């Protein structure tokens, strides 16, 4: 840990279970979940350079990306409370030289930072269009789940403006919107290059899709093997164990299950 952590009422400090990283969370706002962890592992990142995380929430993806790259990482979050939590998490981990958190609207961020300056952009956007689903939920949850501050088109357009030619944009979303995602990416000259479906179990339909596109690239899409979350014993599969807990934990789990 970098500094002493001051928590607001209702907040807690959670262990990210890797590289001694911790993150501030609260039940009153949207906490990160598996989709963010998988995106942070899926995105192809350079050893150095500039990375941008949009819809950053409490900053979990930038924190996790620091374990894979020495790049400078910017994060954009529109909700003031979440942006503040992200900044304090960055400081708590002593990563102020690596991560900078901006409170603002991703639709205007290019006006502040410029066009095409990032090597990689990651984004874990709201999955549901505005006006769908539960309209009476907590405002923080509603903004995290629904496209209240930008449509899918707005979000992809922001990615396209901010990533350099040949740079990568990595997104996690719902498979039900895959056709719309690919159409929108191509509209903004982001060519899908890698895709992976995530299934709760081997018998289940996919409930997440990880997709990576390259700015101004030629068509050629690689479909990666599906990622299965749970095995027959309803425990994390070895790959999930490795993603969450590292090689040692995955090896120990494999021995216990007789693999």
Automatic annotation (TrEMBL):
InterPro entries: SAM-dependent_MTases_sf, Small_mtfrase_dom, tRNA_Adenine-N(6)_MTase. Pfam families: MTS. Keywords: Methyltransferase, Transferase. Residues 36-131 form the Methyltransferase small domain. One of its GO terms (biological process) is methylation. SUPFAM superfamilies: S-adenosyl-L-methionine-dependent methyltransferases. Gene3D superfamilies: Vaccinia Virus protein VP39. This is tRNA1(Val) (Adenine(37)-N6)-methyltransferase.
């Amino acid at each position: 840990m970098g500094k002493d952590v001051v928590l607001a009422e209702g907040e807690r400090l959670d262990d990210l279970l890797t590289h001694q990283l911790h993150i501030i969370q609260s039940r009153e706002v949207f906490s990160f979940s598996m989709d963010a962890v998988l995106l942070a592992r899926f995105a192809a990142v350079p050893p150095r350079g500039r990375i941008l995380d949009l819809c950053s929430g409490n900053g979990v993806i930038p924190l996790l990306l620091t374990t894979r790259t020495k790049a400078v990482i910017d994060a954009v979050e529109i909700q003031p409370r979440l942006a503040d939590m992200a900044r304090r998490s960055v400081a708590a981990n002593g990563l102020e030289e690596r991560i900078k958190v901006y409170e603002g609207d991703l639709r205007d961020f290019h006006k502040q930072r410029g066009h095409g300056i990032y090597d990689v952009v990651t984004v874990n956007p709201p999955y549901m269009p505005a006006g769908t689903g539960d309209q009476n939920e907590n405002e923080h949850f509603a903004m995290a789940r629904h496209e209240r501050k930008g449509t899918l088109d707005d979000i992809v357009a922001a990615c396209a403006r901010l990533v350099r030619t040949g740079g990568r944009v990595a997104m996690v979303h719902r498979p039900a919107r895959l056709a719309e995602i690919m159409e929108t990416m191509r509209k903004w000259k982001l060519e899908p290059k890698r895709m992976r479906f995530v299934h709760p179990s081997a018998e289940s339909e996919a409930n997440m899709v990880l997709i990576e596109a390259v700015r101004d690239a030629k068509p050629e899409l690689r479909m990666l093997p599906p990622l299965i979350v749970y095995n027959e014993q309803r425990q994390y599969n070895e790959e999930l164990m490795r993603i969450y807990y590292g090689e040692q934990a995955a090896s120990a789990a494999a021995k216990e299950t007789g693999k």
